[in-house]
Amino acid sequence: MAAVVSVERAEALSDLILVCEHASHFIPADRNGMGLAADGQVAHIAWDPGALGVARGLSRRLDATLVSAEISRLIYDLNRPPHVMAAMPAKSEIYDIPGNHQIDTRERLARTRAVYLPFHDCLRRLVAERLAVGRIPQIATIHSFTPFYFGQQRHLDLGVIHDADPTLAIATLAAAHAESDLVSALNQPYDAADGVTHTLRLQATPYGLANVMIEIRNDLISNEESQEDMSEILAKILTRALGALAEDAQRAVL
Amino acid sequence: MAAVVSVERAEALSDLILVCEHASHFIPADRNGMGLAADGQVAHIAWDPGALGVARGLSRRLDATLVSAEISRLIYDLNRPPHVMAAMPAKSEIYDIPGNHQIDTRERLARTRAVYLPFHDCLRRLVAERLAVGRIPQIATIHSFTPFYFGQQRHLDLGVIHDADPTLAIATLAAAHAESDLVSALNQPYDAADGVTHTLRLQATPYGLANVMIEIRNDLISNEESQEDMSEILAKILTRALGALAEDAQRAVL
After folding, report:
1. Residues of B in contact with A129 (CB under 8 A)
2. First to last CA, chain B
3. Which of A69, B41, B107, B253 is most exposed by smallest CB count within 10 Å?
4. For A112, which DSSP code?
């Protein structure tokens, strides 16, 4: 298996850690495109189009470390635990995924070892090492969603989703309203109950770290220029949200 | 640094995974006993006396995998995250720990890398691999507590502690009352709010796994024979508790 995780700006100064689990649509050659037609192999079922570009723009603007996947979610969806079907889905939205039909436990185990464990071990190491030296990280995962889902149009621009602790998500939504005209909502287009906060639950919640999952409608970030524009706006939003958290923490101390 | 984690009965058939974070009082020779007198180096501040013997008896009786530490909690307390003082305590109960005075961030980082990460990566790998092949583990951590704490005598025999999900702990307490005369209580001698459920929070809660922390008063398990006796009783208790959970799950399906 090829490399599955990339860390950019490992020595960055911001306490924010950016995560992009669905950064790549790379399918190893021996997988025969997972049996999908060419368009399916680069559709939203294979990755989150535009998310990596936005995450990189954020990483540069905020001087924040970025952990991203280098393999398609069709092989293993890193935002899902190994025992759920969605980790290696046989079907995703309207797409049938032949490469995930009838995969046996040996194959599920092999992918868990090759993709899930190295990615999350890498992220956890980063979190634990920061904690050890007295830096308390926040975690923001960067995703994109498809404008049409099962034929229904989505009018949301920006979804702000949280796991058990809503603090950073609420601050991020308030900042989105203050800093942008984006149509933004909390826990849309889905929420923790839909099983979409696995990374936050695994990496942030056990340590009590502030966390948020950002979901951007992917037609807003379909090319480099619009990804840069979006990262410029999100950098302002996240800076304001993290500033509000820091102020609250300061007040709690005084 | 020496090996820090041991896995026994890796191929065991029970879904229960036993964890013993404070199994060992081993202090590497170059640490000069952490500056403690000989008695302090083997006192309850260095390990949980008797816990490993009980855990091994349970592992054998229940055919359950056991993950245990091979290094003293004085170097790194594996039931604590890296940013809390208790992970590398300068003081523990009435003991001063010179080897943990004024340790700098470099040393905290080195111990986190050498002890905390390998232990918890190993346990997580075990959990994730079980999940990948469709086995849903339960996690029980086995601890012991000192009968006298800051001079106060503790009359509790058995503490049953949980993280967010109390299901298995409640079942275990009910089973302890049914199967034994042990003076047993829920969330005693301390509870999750005291920060003692880190392993459960890190390894069980994110995956929704049933979990319990077992605390045994250490004068009840001070030699091999009494450890065997206690593991015999606890095997019955845990078998009954896990059976009750399985029955509840069965009923939920019907």
Report:
1. 82, 109, 112-113
2. 52
3. B253
4. I
Per the CB < 8 A criterion, the answer to whether B158 and B176 are in contact is: yes
Size of chain B in residues: 254
- Residue of A129, A197, A200, A203 for testing the chain B interface, max B β-carbons within 10 Å: A129
Cα dihedral sign, B188-B190-B193-B195: negative
Q: Measured between beta carbons, which residues in chain A are less than 8 angstroms from residue B105? A: 132-134
The minimal CB distance from A109 to the residues B83, B133, B206 is found for: B133
* Mean pLDDT, chain B, whole residue set: 95
Query: Domain B5-253 maps to which CATH number in 3.40.630.40, 3.40.50.1100, 3.40.1190.20, 3.40.50.300?
Result: 3.40.630.40
**Is A113–B129 a contact, with Cβ atoms under 8 angstroms apart?**
yes
Q: Name every chain A residue with its beta carbon within 8 A of the beta carbon of B83.
A: 131-132, 134, 136, 207
User: pLDDT, tens digit, for every residue of B23-34?
Assistant: 999 999 999 999
Token pair for B242: 């896990």
Angle, helix A51-62 to helix A224-253, in steps of 10 degrees: 50
Determine whether the interchain pair A128/B117 forms a contact, defined as Cβ–Cβ distance below 8 Å: yes
The domain limits of chain A are 5-253
Report the distance separating Cα B19 and Cα B201, nearest Å: 13
Cross-chain residue pair B131–A112, CB shorter than 8 Å: yes
CA closest to B115 among chain A residues: A128
The whole-model pTM stands at 0.95
Contact A121 B116 (CB under 8 A): no
Question: Which string of b and e fits A163-201 if b means at least 16 CB within 10 Å?
Answer: bebbbbbbbbbbbbeebbebebbbbbbbbbeeebbbbbb
Question: What single DSSP character describes residue A169?
Answer: H
Instruction: With CB atoms and an 8 Å threshold, state whether A108 touches B206.
Output: no
Query: Cα–Cα distance between B33 and B52 in angstroms, integer?
Result: 21
Looking at chain B, which residue has its C-alpha nearest residue A88?
B132
- Alpha-carbon distance of B37 to B41, in angstroms, equals 7
Average pLDDT per block of 10 residues along chain A, 254 residues long: 89 97 97 95 95 98 98 98 96 90 95 98 98 97 92 92 96 98 96 94 97 98 98 98 92 79
CB A241 within 8 A of CB A172: yes
DSSP letters for B100-137:
GTT--HHHHHHHIIIIIHHHHHHHHHHHHHHHHTT---
Mutate to test the interface with B, among A207, A209, A211 (most CBs of B within 10 A): A207
User: Which tens digits make up the pLDDT trace of A127-149?
Assistant: 999 999 999 999 999 999 999 88
User: Does the beta-carbon distance from B83 to A121 stay under 8 Å?
Assistant: no
The CA distances from residue A207 to A24, A124, A234, B15, B93, in Å, are: 28, 10, 25, 26, 24
Helix spans in chain A (H)? 38-41, 51-62, 105-111, 117-132, 167-179, 198-203, 224-253
